[in-house]
Specification:
Blueprint lengths: L6 E8 L6 H10 L12 E10 L2 E10 L6 H4 L8 E7 L3 H5 L1 H11 L5 E7 L11 H10 L7 E3 L8 H19 L4 H11 L9
Parallel strand pairs: 1-3, 1-4, 4-5, 5-6
Antiparallel strand pairs: 2-3
C-alpha cells in the first residue's frame, strides 16, 4: 500500500439524474461549482486524500449515471463499496420518492455492512423546497436508517458538503479498526479503475 495513506475507501454516489451528484463531488474534491453539465454516461470517479485524527485516508469517489437505462451498467460498481451516498433533490419530490428504489438497488448489489448516507441537495433553494424533514424521518424509519444518516446539503452554496465526507470517512475508519483493514482492497480498486468507461459529467 502507498505509504502516504493508511486507508483506501471506495465511496459511490447514486440517485436520479440531475439531483447534483457530480456537483457535490466537484465541490468536495476541487471546491468548484459549475452550472453547465450534460448527463454522466456510465461511471467516472475522483480521488480525495484527507487526514482525520492523524490518520490519512484516500477516498475513491465514484460518480454514477442516474438515468434508469444505465442502472445495469453501474450495478457492478456497488461491489466493494465501503460507503454509498444516495442523493436526492430537495426541490424535486419524485427524486425523493425514488430513494427507496436506490435503497433496493443497494440491498441487491452492495455488501450488507456498507455505510449508507442520504443527502438532500439544493437546500439553499428555500422557496422551492418540496421535501420536509418529517417526510425524510418517515422514509428513514421505514427503511431502518438512523436519523444521523441524513444530511441537508448544497453543492452550490457549499453547505455541509465537506462535513458529510469527513463524517463518513471517520465512520469507515472506526469500523475498519474493529474488523481489521484488508490491504487487498487497494488492488481491487485499482483493477476497477482500469475497466472504467469514462464519460461526460453531470450535476
Amino acid at each position: 500500500m502507498d505509504p502516504e495513506y493508511k486507508y483506501l475507501f471506495k465511496v459511490i454516489l447514486i440517485g436520479d439524474s440531475g439531483v447534483g451528484k457530480t456537483c457535490l463531488i466537484n465541490r468536495y474534491t476541487d471546491n468548484v461549482y459549475h452550472t453547465n453539465y450534460i448527463s454522466t454516461i456510465g461511471v467516472d470517479f475522483k480521488i480525495k486524500t484527507l487526514k482525520i485524527a492523524n490518520e490519512v485516508s484516500k477516498l475513491q469517489i465514484w460518480d454514477t449515471a442516474g438515468q434508469e437505462r444505465f442502472r445495469t451498467i453501474t450495478s457492478s460498481y456497488y461491489r466493494g463499496a465501503h460507503g454509498i451516498i444516495i442523493v436526492f433533490d430537495m426541490t424535486d419530490l419524485q427524486s425523493f420518492k425514488n430513494v427507496k428504489d436506490w435503497l433496493f438497488e443497494i440491498r441487491r448489489h452492495a455488501s450488507e455492512d456498507v455505510e449508507i448516507i442520504v443527502l438532500g441537495n439544493k437546500v439553499d433553494l428555500k422557496d422551492f423546497l418540496k421535501v420536509t424533514r418529517e417526510d425524510v424521518n418517515i422514509m428513514l424509519k421505514n427503511n431502518n436508517l438512523k436519523e444521523e444518516c441524513f444530511w441537508e446539503v448544497s453543492a452550490k452554496e457549499n453547505i455541509a458538503v465537506q462535513n458529510v465526507f469527513e463524517k463518513l470517512t471517520q465512520i469507515l475508519i472506526e469500523k475498519n479498526k474493529k474488523i481489521g483493514y484488508s490491504k487487498d482492497i487497494d488492488k481491487e480498486l485499482v483493477d476497477l479503475t482500469s475497466n472504467t468507461e469514462r464519460g461526460s459529467r453531470c450535476c
